[in-house]
TrEMBL record:
<dbReference type="GO" id="GO:0005739">
    <property type="term" value="C:mitochondrion"/>
</dbReference>
<keyword id="KW-0560">Oxidoreductase</keyword>
<dbReference type="InterPro" id="IPR045086">
    <property type="entry name" value="OBG_GTPase"/>
</dbReference>
<feature type="domain" description="Obg">
    <location>
        <begin position="37"/>
        <end position="253"/>
    </location>
</feature>
<dbReference type="GO" id="GO:0003924">
    <property type="term" value="F:GTPase activity"/>
</dbReference>
<dbReference type="GO" id="GO:0140680">
    <property type="term" value="F:histone H3K36me/H3K36me2 demethylase activity"/>
</dbReference>
<dbReference type="GO" id="GO:0000287">
    <property type="term" value="F:magnesium ion binding"/>
</dbReference>
<dbReference type="InterPro" id="IPR006169">
    <property type="entry name" value="GTP1_OBG_dom"/>
</dbReference>
<protein>
    <submittedName>
        <fullName>GTPase of the mitochondrial inner membrane that associates with the large ribosomal subunit</fullName>
        <ecNumber>1.14.11.27</ecNumber>
    </submittedName>
</protein>
<dbReference type="Pfam" id="PF01018">
    <property type="entry name" value="GTP1_OBG"/>
</dbReference>
<dbReference type="InterPro" id="IPR006073">
    <property type="entry name" value="GTP-bd"/>
</dbReference>
<comment type="similarity">
    <text>Belongs to the TRAFAC class OBG-HflX-like GTPase superfamily. OBG GTPase family.</text>
</comment>
<feature type="domain" description="OBG-type G">
    <location>
        <begin position="254"/>
        <end position="419"/>
    </location>
</feature>
<dbReference type="Pfam" id="PF01926">
    <property type="entry name" value="MMR_HSR1"/>
</dbReference>
<dbReference type="GO" id="GO:0042254">
    <property type="term" value="P:ribosome biogenesis"/>
</dbReference>
<dbReference type="InterPro" id="IPR031167">
    <property type="entry name" value="G_OBG"/>
</dbReference>
<dbReference type="InterPro" id="IPR027417">
    <property type="entry name" value="P-loop_NTPase"/>
</dbReference>
């Protein structure tokens, strides 16, 4: 450390950089704080793999050999872009809109190969679904011949001529005959094949997806040495990395999802049963983004519950906050309807909620579910509850989330349902 400091006192700018790098280890903390304020669960981004380095054209030389054999090094491979699911991330706000991996460096003389570009590893929340967005080709482009080497090349290099693939020795552009040159097999394959369409679901912590592959490095001139061609005065350029436009959608993964009208007491219920502390207030749309709580049972079995903003009738027409937040309960095995039983016709609320779920995703309302009749401590609740119970065979669990009454019955009913849904 002392020697590093002594070195840096001679270069104050570098010392400043050293100090800021050390301070920057708190960047993840800052990012998480920002994520809380600026929740994003749907975004587009562009990912670009690093370009491969170019091969080198060089010939061995020393005091006794004036014109030796070719000794140009190969270019390094470009870095790739990876997405890794991380359970500690909660929002896509930490993902930048343009993600570029490092390019590879060029090869050099004396058979020195270029170094590969570093991969860019981007942490995304668990439950991120990645889809590629492709432009629909216009009919004229569709009709153009697009197969074989030149077709693939045109796609990759946007119409570059094959001679543009080559690095030429100074003033050898016209003397090099590159038309019949056999390209290395992996290089030719990369040119001919368009990258496959990408679709990934990062559901488990640590799951990785390669979203943009780095370009191959170009071969140095020794690759083209043969009996017929003793002095190849050309090498290959590196290939560009894959470029993709991606659509990221965060679909939270929890065992159970809370669904209810605004103000029904979803957040109060989550606070009562789990370790989460979402905001509670006596007005609609207090909760503006999803919260996940973990319920730990007496036998240490754990259950995750997702609280999402309230759904109102007409949410599918974007009334209220719309129904985009329902994506966070799409993957829940069990739905927990929270209904304010002190309202005049709680059963109508439940029907409206089921209708909205069905409009968001057909079949969603038929998922195994439990109905929590919340605010059972209120005066109007008793009569409503008794009437409702006579009208339906659905199991209703009366609960007062605020006073924490009958919570154990609710959590055990949810657990039983989750376990039977998993079986
Ligand atoms: N009396 C009574 N009041 C309750 C009960 N549960 C919740 N409340 C009250 O109802 C109001 C709304 O509660 P929230 O938990 O914020 O409701 P929410 O469903 O999360 O509402 P949004 O986030 O806006 O969708 C608060 O004032 C709570 O104190 C209950 O069991 N009994
Ligand atoms: Mg809430």
């Amino acid at each position: 450390m002392l020697s590093t400091l002594r070195h840096h006192t001679r270069a104050p700018g570098a010392l400043l950089r050293l100090l800021t790098t050390q301070v920057d280890k708190y960047a993840p903390l800052r990012r998480n704080k920002r994520a809380g304020r600026n929740f994003i669960d749907h975004m587009r981004c562009t990912v670009v793999g690093g370009r491969g380095g170019s091969g080198c054209v060089s010939f061995f030389r020393d005091t006794r050999v004036a014109d030796g054999p070719p000794d140009g090094g190969d270019g390094g491979r470009g870095g790739s872009v990876w997405f890794v699911a991380d359970a500690n991330e909660t929002s896509l706000s930490c993902v930048r809109q343009l993600l570029r991996a490092q390019p590879g460096t060029n090869g050099r003389g004396k058979s020195m190969h270029g170094t590969g570009g570093a991969d860019l590893v981007v942490r995304v929340p668990r439950g991120t679904v990645v889809r590629e967005v492709r432009e629909v080709p216009r009919p004229a482009e569709d009709a153009a011949p697009a197969d074989g080497f030149l077709g693939g090349l045109a796609r990759q290099l946007q119409g570059a001529r094959s001679s543009e693939l080559f690095v030429h020795y100074p003033r050898w552009e016209d003397r090099n005959n590159t038309a019949d040159v056999r390209l290395p097999a992996d290089y030719a394959a990369a040119l001919a094949e368009p990258p496959a369409e990408l679709c990934a679901d990062l559901a488990e912590h640590g799951q990785r997806a390669l979203v943009a592959r780095g370009g191959l490095g170009g071969a140095g001139n020794p690759h083209f040495f043969s009996g017929a061609l003793r002095r190849p005065h050309f090498a290959l350029h590196g290939l560009p990395g894959t470029t993709r436009t991606l659509e990221l959608e965060l679909k939270t993964i929890a065992h159970a999802g809370l669904v209810g009208m605004p103000n029904a007491g979803k957040s109060t219920f989550l606070r009562a049963v789990s370790n989460a502390h979402p905001r509670v207030a006596p007005y609609a749309f207090t909760t503006l983004n999803p919260y996940i709580g973990t319920v730990t049972y007496a036998d240490m079995w754990q259950l995750t519950i997702a609280d999402i903003p309230g759904i109102v009738p007409g949410a599918h027409r974007n009334v209220g906050l719309g129904h985009a937040f329902l994506r966070h309960i799409e993957r829940s095995r069990v739905l927990v309807f929270i209904v304010d039983v002190s309202r005049p016709q709680p059963w109508a609320d439940l029907d409206a909620l089921r209708d909205e779920l069905e409009r968001h995703q057909p079949g969603l309302s038929r998922r195994p579910s439990v109905v929590i009749a919340n605010k059972a401590d209120r005066e109007e609740a008793r009569a409503n509850f008794e009437r409702w119970q006579q009208m339906t065979d659905t199991v209703l669990v009366p609960v007062s989330a605020k006073l924490r009454k009958n919570i154990l019955k609710a959590t055990h009913t949810i657990r039983r349902l989750v376990e039977s849904a998993a079986a």
